[in-house]
Amino acid sequence: MEIKNETRLTYEILTDVMMSKKKFIITSWIPTFLAVSLFELAICPSGFFPWWVNLLLGGIFLAFSRVQSNISTPKRLKKTYKKIIGEGESRHSFLFKDEEVECHVSNEVTPEAHAIYPYSSLTGWEFVKNYLVLYVSKYQQITIDLNGFDSEEDKNAVIALLKSKVKKD
Questions:
Q1: What is the pLDDT of residues 33-50, one digit of tens each?
Q2: What is the pLDDT of residue 36?
Q3: Coil vs helix vs strand at 130
Q4: Residue 167's CB: how many other CB atoms inside 10 A?
Q5: Torsion sign across C-alpha atoms 94, 165, 21, 153
Q6: What domain range is 51 assigned to?
Q7: 117 has which bridge partners?
Q8: Is residue 59 domain-shared with residue 104, that is, in the same domain?
Q9: Into how many domains does the chain fold?
Q10: What pLDDT score was predicted for residue 10?
Q11: Of 30, 47, 72, which residue constitutes the final position of a domain?
């Protein structure tokens, strides 16, 4: 089996897809909130403030510190994707085979790149808006446009293949 997909992405599309992921938004806040709250609890003597005031102060501090984050603000995320793919669009050609997916990428920053990902190396997948996101690792993902398949049957065959070969998070 060989099924092709042609995907064209811009930094705006990638930012929109990333910010639409509920899992991304929730998990990016939890570690920072816990770290700030524990810091507040550690610096304030236990009798100085009740525990809930320390958590409230930690939350307020967290809200102000989020501006510094490279990941959670759309403006900084767009800037990061611009560095990766440039101002124009990034063209991705995917070839789904029985045991692996081949990826060819071309954009103004990377004129030509090629990668092969065995399904056993993928860590998960999910649907976000009209895109399929395959996770290569915790920090690396592949975004595939579901409208890039030649037919609806090809799209359904790839989804069935992913369901059988890749563990969904």
A1: 667 666 666 666 555 667
A2: 66
A3: coil
A4: 12
A5: positive
A6: 21-72
A7: 101
A8: no
A9: 2
A10: 85
A11: 72
